[in-house]
TrEMBL record:
GO terms for MF: oxidoreductase activity, acting on the CH-CH group of donors, NAD or NADP as acceptor
Keyword Oxidoreductase included in the entry's annotation: yes
InterPro entries recorded: ADH-like_C (IPR013149), ADH_N_2 (IPR041694), ER (IPR020843), GroES-like_sf (IPR011032), MDR_fam (IPR045010), NAD(P)-bd_dom_sf (IPR036291)
Source taxonomy: Bacteria, Pseudomonadati, Pseudomonadota, Alphaproteobacteria, Sphingomonadales
Pfam families linked to this entry: ADH_N_2, ADH_zinc_N
Domain (Enoyl reductase (ER)): residue spans on this chain: 18-328
SMART domains: PKS_ER
Keyword terms, alphabetized: Oxidoreductase
Protein name in UniProt: NADP-dependent oxidoreductase
Keyword Oxidoreductase annotated: yes
Cross-referenced SUPFAM superfamilies: GroES-like (SSF50129), NAD(P)-binding Rossmann-fold domains (SSF51735)
Length: 331
């Protein structure tokens, strides 16, 4: 069998990702050895973190090399198994990459039910787990807390907001565009949404948080995040999940100028890497799936078709063009 693949051709350090950072090619499918699986890749998930994986700027995963298949979470079907724990036809998820077929160690694949398959790349995958554990382990919301989320219409931010609402919090989302803001309020039940493209967030957030912000969940970084820090309440919790606004900067900007507010308000700011909680993923999946079945949680997916479109699909994240979790279906 022929295996179409996208491979890393360059490292986009200090600049935006370009389609020329990837090489398209074809190769032979490797048969699985003992303890391995051959997986047909059906759906790919896209995350801002993939840029960092290309650049090797983060050390929570092993490094990538020029010429490697582009790394990505995916959902697929087992074609051939050399491991007693899996059989042909099983649906699995794992880091299978931008290719038609992946030969992987069985320990690197996880069986998933044959339903809501693409949700395993979003709300029932690491995206949803990020929201779940960030709120459960770091933010620790209390009823009546005011929660402000940057990048609120993204797959992670929208899940965070819904968890906060279930916890009895007031939730304010910051997103790009009227459509996204309307969705947050009308569909997901956020109390307010600010369009950073049309509003002065620093000015307009003030009357919405008269008693301060108890929880900031930041996916964006930069000036929007910095402008929220003067509004934190006493003993606020700040969850740093991402900083997509600065990922393509040639020179990283200085850190937040208002960080001393953390001292004045006796607040806590903590970073989050969801893989630290991998042992508890089954618990998170059970809770999130239950909320979906009960109609208490909604999610959106932005689906593109065709493996040949993978590079352009990743670029959509950095242009703010996706609405919900960005997914690509190969066939």
């Amino acid at each position: 069998m022929i295996n179409r693949q996208w491979r890393i051709a360059a490292r986009p350090l200090g600049r935006a990702i370009e389609t020329s950072d990837f090489d398209w090619g074809e190769g032979e499918v490797r048969s699985p050895g003992d303890g391995e699986l051959l997986v047909r890749v059906d759906h790919l998930g896209f995350d801002p973190a993939q840029k960092g994986w290309m650049e090797n700027v983060a050390d929570y995963l092993g490094p990538t090399e020029i010429g490697d298949v582009m790394r990505a979470f995916a959902v697929g079907e087992v074609v051939e198994s050399r491991d007693p724990g899996f059989a042909a036809g099983d649906k699995v998820t794992g880091m299978f990459g931008w290719q038609d077929y992946a030969t992987v160690a069985a320990r690197d694949a996880t069986k998933v039910p044959d339903e809501m398959l693409t949700a395993n790349l979003g709300i029932l995958g690491v995206t949803g787990y990020t929201a779940f554990f960030g709120m459960n382990k770091i933010a620790k919301p209390f009823p009546g807390d005011t929660v402000v989320i940057t990048g609120a219409a993204g797959a992670t931010g929208s899940t965070v907001g819904q968890i906060a609402k279930m916890a009895g919090c007031r939730v304010i989302g910051i997103a790009g565009g009227e459509r996204k803001c309307r969705w947050l309020v009308e569909e997901l039940g956020f109390d307010h949404a600010l369009d950073y493209r049309a509003a002065n967030v620093r000015r307009e957030i003030k009357p919405l948080v008269p008693n301060g912000i108890d929880i900031i969940w930041d996916n964006v970084g930069g000036s929007i995040f910095d402008g929220l820090l003067p509004r934190i309440a006493m003993h606020a919790r700040v969850v740093v999940c991402g900083a997509i606004s600065i990922y393509s900067e040639a020179t990283l900007p200085p850190g937040p100028s208002n960080y001393m507010q953390l001292v004045f308000r006796r607040a806590k700011m903590e970073g989050l890497i969801v893989l630290d909680h991998e042992a508890e993923f089954p618990w998170a999946r059970e809770r999130l799936a239950g909320w979906i079945r009960e109609g208490r949680m909604k999610h959106a997916e932005d689906v593109v078709h065709g493996l040949e479109n993978a590079p352009e699909t990743l670029l959509r994240l950095f242009k703010g063009e996706n609405f919900g979790k960005q997914v690509l279906t190969l066939r």
